[in-house]
Amino acid sequence: MIITSRTRLSSLNTTTGAQLLTLDTPDQAEARNGFMNRIGQDRARSEKAALNQVIVHAISFHQIHG
């Protein structure tokens, strides 16, 4: 199981022995590749403007609320 959070979930490690992993925010190219792998190349190409908006907003949100 993978659980994600913007805050460190130390209690999971303490109570269940879960491994905690800190990840950096992906850059635009990494985010684009991740989305394209998830939604498929055809959809990514046909909805390029929407994909660009999602990536910009997601990265901006993280930078503000990090």
Write a short abstract of this structure.
This protein has 66 residues and is mostly helical. It is built from 4 helices and no strands.
* Number of helices, where a helix is a run of at least 4 consecutive DSSP H or I residues: 4
Instruction: Give helix % range.
Output: 55-70%
Secondary-structure class: mainly alpha
Tell me the radius of gyration: 15 Å
Overall description:
The protein is mostly helical and 66 residues long. It is built from four helices and no strands. α2 (28-39) packs across α4 (48-65). The chain is elongated. The chain starts with 9 loop residues before the first helix and ends with a helix.
Spell out the key features of this protein.
elongated, mainly alpha, 66 residues
Question: What is the topology?
Answer:
Elements: H1 10-16, H2 28-39, H3 41-46, H4 48-65
Helix pairs in contact: 2-4
